[in-house]
Amino acid sequence: MNYAKIVREAWNLTLETPKLKWLIFIPTFMAVFIFALKIVWQGFMYASKFEWIENGFSMETIGQVGGFLSSNGLWGTGMALIIITLIFMFIIPSWIDSTLILAVDHKLKTPDKYLSTKQKMLKAFGFYFRMFELNAVLGLVSILSIALFTATVFRFFNSSLLVIFAVVIGIYSIIALVINTLFSFAPYYLVVDDMPLGQALKKSSALVFLNLMPTLGILSILFLINFRVIVNILVILGVPIGIAMTMTFFNNSVATVFSIILGLALFALAAYITSITTVFMTAVWIQAFETLKAKKARLEEGEPINQDLPSEPSPPVSEAV
Predict the structure, then answer these.
(1) Do 27 and 135 touch, CB atoms closer than 8 A?
(2) How far is Cα 12 from Cα 10, in angstroms, rounded to an integer?
């Protein structure tokens, strides 16, 4: 597999089709916000466990927020925000995932044809329930879910049970990694080839089994890229966070307003970078999917598969107007 060619074409598509990153920007912003809430909650719980803050501080803070909403007649607004958050947590992702796969596949296969994101969004409804079921299955073995679950349960274990718990989580994490690897191409079988969920899972497992090293190569490249992106985000965000912390020593009211504005800006920046990375990764996976699927077809026909299929030079990916 020509990794350099795949990465180069995926990056060119990402840069030359800006509408794709804006397509997923708002859902990504909400995903970043929800992730931040989970991390903040875990931070409060551990701070309370180790007595860095007073016991009950977290519940007291929630009570104060509830009291503020009640005294100002904002319960309706609060409930609306909770409902919107739940929608973006459980409903929107499957629809947007399908839409992005359809859009990227369109630009890779027919770069000169106009891309209508609205049309892809309508077409994505046909894959919604299958993608929702797939995300539900993969959610059980998500490394992030396992990490958050581990952080939650760890607070309630004493030292004598930590070893047993660590062994169980370690074994489950290995199983989760294997399942995630085997199902790497399931979303693309489901959407690009319009397969039922069960068949998509079987086809993905077979494709990964026959092309284990190329699949691990793609996973390794994307891991390194994501790691670099995360490091860059931390470096970029460090300066304004330091400024915000310094402001708290001078004027609390000004610091509060400044922190809110800065927080929204940081969420937007993180969502923007994550959106670009998501489009890029989708383009990489679709190209790998088509390449390995073609090699598998040649294997079934008894042809040699030690080399990739010869390909004509790809036309430049350009944004049709």
Answers:
(1) no
(2) 5
